[in-house]
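Researcher: Sequence recovery benchmark, item below. Answer with residues only.
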């Protein structure tokens, strides 16, 4: 079998599978990468990149002028980053109580990461703000890279004659490097420190370079959007946060009407009704039909939050009916179960939870 034929066959199989499948979105809590101590229940956010000296303020203005990013855009981006980290910590899970106070701390210098705040100073800030800890943005730097490529496009005149006109495609890569620290009030020490790099690519097209540039968002808007990603990313580092999962399920199996009927129920979010029909279809003597029904029962269980049940159904599909997709799904479910146990461990210290 030559490579071209093999690739075409693989594509055909994928298309056939997608034609008899649908999908459902599941929202689930993912564990924090860095668990915080149980006594850290409430936090305030702080921005520590406010320039401390006139010399640093001068360099900030000079940098904005030379890079074309504009004056004060890093400061505005840093404020947005701190806003988002606070919102994400408050909304992504119930791990922390987040105060509305956003502290502005002097301390930025030409160094990227300053020395940690003094423990007594941290304790005093926490006492005055009535929180157990601080999440502090301690470094923020943006970098913009512009590139362009020339090309052509085909146009027709009034007589229908085709001819080529020049075009320009521009790309702006906006990168932000941030530095966060989380401090605990008990001793005033650093509980976590992270240096992050986030970037987004923005594109524009036009008949000339200036025309293509006009299609790009303003640099300050680009910085703001990347800063939002950075803030959300750090919140997910220290607190369990919701993520969106996508699961496919079979909508049909050859010569089995029950699979189609169940798919109608599932599309209408009637997972209990769909599961009843899939349980009937799972009794089919054809292992392909039964395997798809068992697989779908696993998806239905996961949608309803029953991961152990989903694993049991996936095992039947994978091992009893030799369903290839179920073997991969089983690995995903086992990983999810371990993640769920870790989330429960990270949240058990929160007041009012089990």
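Model:
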């Amino acid at each position: 079998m030559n490579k071209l034929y093999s690739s075409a066959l693989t594509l055909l199989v994928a298309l056939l599978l997608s034609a008899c499948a649908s999908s459902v979105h599941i929202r689930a809590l993912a564990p924090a990468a860095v668990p915080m101590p149980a006594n850290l229940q409430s936090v305030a956010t702080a921005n520590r990149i406010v320039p401390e000296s006139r010399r640093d303020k001068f360099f900030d203005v000079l940098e904005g002028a030379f890079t074309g990013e504009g004056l004060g855009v890093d400061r505005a981006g840093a404020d947005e980053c701190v806003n988002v980290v606070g919102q994400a910590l408050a909304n992504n899970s119930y791990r922390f109580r987040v105060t509305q106070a956003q502290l502005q701390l002097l301390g930025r210098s030409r160094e990227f990461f300053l020395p940690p705040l003094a423990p007594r100073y941290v304790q005093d800030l926490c006492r005055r703000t009535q929180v157990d800890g601080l999440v502090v943005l301690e470094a923020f730097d943006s970098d913009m890279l512009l590139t362009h490529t020339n090309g052509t496009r085909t146009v027709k005149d009034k007589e229908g004659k085709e001819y080529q006109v020049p075009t320009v495609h521009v790309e702006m890569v906006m990168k932000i490097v941030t530095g966060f620290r989380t401090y605990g009030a008990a001793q005033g020490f650093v509980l976590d420190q992270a240096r992050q790099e986030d970037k987004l690519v923005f594109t524009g097209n036009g008949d000339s370079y200036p025309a293509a540039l006009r299609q790009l968002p303003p640099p300050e808007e680009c910085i703001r959007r990347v800063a939002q990603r950075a803030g959300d990313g750090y919140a997910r580092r220290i607190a369990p946060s919701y993520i969106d999962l996508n699961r496919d399920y079979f909508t049909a199996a050859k010569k089995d009407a029950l699979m189609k009927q169940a798919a109608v129920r599932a599309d209408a979010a009637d997972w209990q009704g769909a599961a009843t029909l899939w349980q009937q279809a799972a009794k089919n003597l054809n292992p392909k039909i039964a395997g798809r029904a068992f697989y779908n029962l696993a998806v239905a269980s996961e949608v309803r939050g029953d991961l152990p049940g989903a694993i049991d159904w996936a095992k039947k599909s994978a091992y009893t009916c030799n369903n290839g997709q179920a073997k991969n799904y089983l690995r995903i479910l086992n990983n999810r179960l371990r993640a769920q146990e870790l989330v429960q461990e990270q949240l058990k210290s929160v007041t009012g939870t089990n």
